[in-house]
């Protein structure tokens, strides 16, 4: 690129010459910057759980994320997309450390993740310190990631834990006839939300909670908890994921546990159903609910399942809720970037935030949009575990609860007034 030259018809002052030369350099720099912006890849950081009891869920989340990238052929508005992944162990500290690395060292333009509930709360707090950066939730499902004190630049196209069990409490009360249910759940934010959603609906129908047992993430011995489950319980609502779910289910069957089980969203996920163990014979008939399922008679879901299987020879028989969730989160990110023509420089982040806020699109399980707190409103699927002709286990949809919002479609003011979910909140009341 050549610099601008001045005509020699008249003498020009030294100051004016310098000003013109500076202007020429400025113009050249502007053009060069624009050209760089056109070819520089868009950098997307992704947080995935790679260690601990939820590692298998993180592996399937990766498959879902890669499916979304494949749909866009790795480009947005002509700009290549580069994904930089970091693994966590599902703890808030680990997620925050890896997020800082992606943002502050790798200089990613957008961060997608995390996977787990407690991680999500940590990333929301971090997002507040970087108002000009865009964060898109992975599948972190703690209720207060968005319900209370949300970050303006944190967008969740993934339903929270309470939303994901919408319809389950009424289903087990009305269809299964359960009236008194014990709870066994991991002691962190996501299970709190799952239990809260279940209790709100089940107890609202007249059901009772026999007891609530909270166990640390990564528990291996459940014998004490199993021995304390009240004999009066009609069923046990279990909110454990990955290896924790497999360990509990195996030990419950080995101990001769008689009460039927109700599954949390990740307790009977595809990753757990396809694990080997003595518990498999007790899984058929277990009701659950989530934002995805296995056996769902919907063309968009069938197409997604086929693409999932074709994209990875090591894929599970059906996409887990994490694969589905990360697929949606990455696709939303790419659709938002497409809407702003891939512009992430300058005020591009503000434009991207506005594009994400107004985004409405069809997913493999129905329409998704965001509420005023940038939280997903989506269809929820109530399921039961069935045995397929090939012997594999799968979740079959028995009921669809349309467009569930963050307050479970209840009046917002009253719902918020219940206070943050915790081990004992909300209480079981009609």
How would you sum up this structure, described in words?
The chain has 13 helices and 15 strands. Helix 2 (55-71) runs parallel beside helix 11 (321-339). Strand 7, helix 6 and strand 8 (208-215) form a beta-alpha-beta unit. The chain has 430 residues and is α/β, with parallel strands linked by helices. 48% of the residues are buried. The longest helix has 26 residues, at 14-39. It has two domains: 42-160 and 298-378, Rossmann fold (3-Layer(aba) Sandwich), CATH 3.40.50.2300; 163-296 and 380-417, Response regulator (Rossmann fold), CATH 3.40.50. It is globular and about 65 Å long. The strands form three sheets. It has a six-stranded mixed β-sheet with strand order 2-3-1-4-5-6. Strands 11, 12, 13, 14 and 15 form a five-stranded antiparallel β-sheet that branches. A four-stranded parallel β-sheet has the order 8-7-9-10, with helices on one face.
């Amino acid at each position: 690129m050549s610099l601008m030259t001045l005509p020699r018809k008249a003498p020009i002052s030294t100051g004016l010459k310098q000003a013109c030369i500076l202007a020429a350099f400025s113009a050249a720099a502007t053009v060069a910057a624009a050209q760089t912006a056109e070819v520089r890849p868009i950098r997307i950081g992704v947080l995935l759980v790679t260690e601990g009891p939820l590692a298998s869920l993180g592996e399937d989340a990766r498959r879902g994320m890669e499916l979304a990238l494949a749909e866009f052929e790795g480009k947005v508005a002509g700009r290549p997309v580069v994904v930089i992944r970091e693994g966590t162990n599902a703890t808030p500290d680990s997620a925050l450390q890896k997020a800082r690395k992606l943002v502050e060292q790798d200089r990613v333009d957008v961060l997608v993740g995390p996977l787990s509930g407690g991680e999500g709360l940590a990333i929301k707090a971090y997002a507040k310190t970087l108002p000009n950066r865009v964060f898109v939730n992975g599948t972190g499902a703690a209720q207060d990631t968005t319900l209370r004190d949300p970050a303006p630049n944190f967008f969740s196209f993934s339903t929270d834990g309470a939303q994901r069990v919408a319809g389950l409490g009424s289903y087990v009360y009305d269809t299964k006839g359960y009236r008194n249910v014990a709870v066994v759940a991991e002691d962190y934010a996501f299970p709190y939300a799952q239990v809260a959603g279940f209790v709100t609906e089940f107890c609202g129908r007249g059901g009772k909670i026999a007891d609530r047992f909270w166990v640390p993430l990564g528990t291996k011995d459940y014998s004490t908890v199993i021995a304390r489950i009240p004999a009066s319980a009609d069923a046990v609502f279990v909110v454990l994921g990955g290896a924790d779910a497999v360990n509990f289910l195996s030990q419950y069957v080995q101990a001769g546990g008689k009460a039927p089980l109700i599954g949390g969203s990740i307790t009977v996920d595809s990753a757990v159903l396809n694990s080997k163990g003595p518990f498999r014979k007790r899984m058929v008939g277990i009701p659950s609910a989530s934002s995805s399922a296995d056996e769902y008679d919907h063309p968009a879901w069938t197409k997604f399942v086929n693409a999932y299987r074709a994209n990875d020879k090591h894929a599970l028989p059906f996409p887990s809720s994490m694969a589905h969730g990360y697929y949606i989160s990455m696709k939303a990110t790419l659709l938002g970037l497409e809407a702003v023509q891939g512009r992430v420089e300058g005020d591009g982040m503000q434009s991207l935030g506005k594009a994400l806020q107004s985004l409405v699109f069809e997913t493999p399980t129905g329409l998704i949009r965001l509420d005023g707190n940038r939280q997903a409103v989506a269809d929820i699927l109530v399921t039961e575990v069935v045995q397929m002709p090939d012997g594999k286990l799968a979740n079959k949809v028995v009921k669809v609860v349309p467009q569930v919002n963050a307050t479970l479609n209840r009046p917002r003011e009253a719902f918020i007034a219940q206070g943050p979910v915790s081990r004992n909140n909300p209480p079981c009341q009609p």
